Amino acid sequence: MARERGFFERSFMFRMIRDFFLLLVIVAVLELGLRYAAILYEFKNNEPVRVQQVADKLSNDIRSIMLNAGGPTAARTIYPIIDKNYHDLGFLVAVEPSQITVDSIKVSQGMEAFGLQQVWPIGHHTESKVDIAAEQYCLGCHIKAKIGDVLGTVTVRSYFDRKLDVWLEEVRVAAGVLSVNILIHTLVLFFLLKIRMQPLLDLRSTVSSLARGLMDISPRTKTNSEDEFGDLATDLNHFLDRIALVVKDLDVILSEVLVVGDRLKVLTKQLDSQCREMREMLFPMETEGGAEGNELELVAARESGVMKTLKTSAEKIKDKGGSRSKIIVEEYNDLLEQLHGSFSELHDSVKKMAESERRRGKNIDRYDLFMNALKEMALLEASMQRVAKSGRETLRRIVQVTEND
Known about the structure:
It contains 8 helices and 3 strands, in the order αααβαββαααα. It is mainly alpha-helical.
């Protein structure tokens, strides 16, 4: 029984946990795959609009900085902060001053206008550019510019590699979280199935042993749950009870068959002995009687031919002799007639005896048929004994009879 209980962990539980683990992994892969597809779709369809909005906002912010924070000098301080903030948001930004701005700032401020320079990496990206036009308040610093001239260009790029890096980070985080979730769910599933299905698996081991004919079918298991597994365990208990009853009934029937076979064997021996005695009493000389009948038939057959020959010889003597010979021949003929009558009676007796012998032979044939029937009955009795013994051996292999039984 201990080996059969270990079968639960080695087969069913292992496969269940494996399937559950693979299912969770497949769900996680599908979720991350859908997330990747969503990112790709978003980048191709919505990212250009988003980049354009960021470029417009950045250009407006630069105008506000120039107006409220002191112009180009303040811009030099704020540009690195802008670069860092937008980089954290997944964008690369650049502010490229025009030649008019470079010349104007060099004259009015006495410095070079570099703007916000950017080293653009190579890769799939979405780009948007917005020109900053000169307004009235800009002419104080941009002395060579006129209203409407382009003072600089704001460039914003969004690279797909940045989106992919974010997705890979999500994959790493999700892998750790999913590993913990899979472990927890697997342990919960293991203990739940262990508690719910252990009674059923105990019965399964009993039924398996019954199928191989290796153990007693009397052990039963307690039903610890009221769900379908508990109902199945109860049904298996009832099924084993019915099998036990059938086995007991078969054992009783086979015992009775063995008793009947023993009685039939004794009866067959008695009948065979009695038949042999009757044969010796009724047909003691069957071979000798048959030989004598054949000899009498041969004598009767020869008699008919001899009588004809004697009559022919007497007629010849009568023709050759005189009156005395005629008298002798007549007496001889009378004697032949008497002899012929005697032989006729003998012939009839022989025929009757032959018919009696034929009837006797038929009776012997019937007797032989009866003896053959007795032999067939003996063979049938032996076959019945073999079947009964085989059945009892099968029952002994299925059910081990204990000392209390």
